[in-house]
Every structure is written in C-alpha cells, then in structure tokens.
Design goal:
Order of helices and strands: EEEEH
Strand content: 35-45%
Number of strands: 4
Radius of gyration: 15 Å
Distance between the termini: 37 Å
Shape: globular
Helix content: 10-25%
Structural class: alpha+beta
Length: about 90
C-alpha cells in the first residue's frame, strides 16, 4: 500500500484486514486498513482504505463514516452481536 492515504501506525485500529470492493461490473478483493478515530467536532470516524496496489477499478481513496456518539454505540453493539453470533455464542 505505497500510495496509502491513511496514516498507519501503532494506534491504527486494524492495519491489515481482508476487504472487498464491489461495483455493478466488478469485484476486487484485497487488503484494507480500518481505523476508528475522533474529529474536533465530537464525531467518531470509521475509516476504510483498500490497498490500491492490486485494485484495478478505483483510484486511491478512503471511505469514511462520520458518526455521532449514539450512532457509534449502535454500530458497536451491532458488531458485538454479530461477533458473538459468528463465534457461536448466540443467535
């Protein structure tokens, strides 16, 4: 990921995760950076950047969700519920 837009360091949430970009006429699999941080306006930012060294259909870019604290908690709860279900801890 030489053309990376997100800074990746010891504080990056996940610096190497499997990812997929899908469009109407393409699907690209590769690695991604996933990061959670905050901005000066009190928003929680969820940022995703696909490794564009192998991806052929999209220019280098970062997808970012700007969430208020309640939205971030709702997303965190949904992730936790899905993680438990996947790990066999519930339905």
């Amino acid at each position: 990921m030489a053309d990376r837009l997100l800074k990746v360091n010891a504080y990056t949430t996940l610096d190497l995760v499997d990812a997929e970009a899908r469009g109407h006429d393409f699907t690209e699999e590769g690695f991604s950076v996933a990061n959670v941080t905050t901005d000066d306006d009190g928003k929680v930012l969820l940022q995703l950047e696909l490794d564009n060294m192998t991806e052929q259909n999209l220019p280098a870019h970062v997808d970012e969700l700007s969430l208020d604290p309640d939205q971030a908690r709702t997303l965190a709860a949904a992730l936790e519920k899905s993680a438990e279900k996947t790990a066999g801890g519930g339905e």
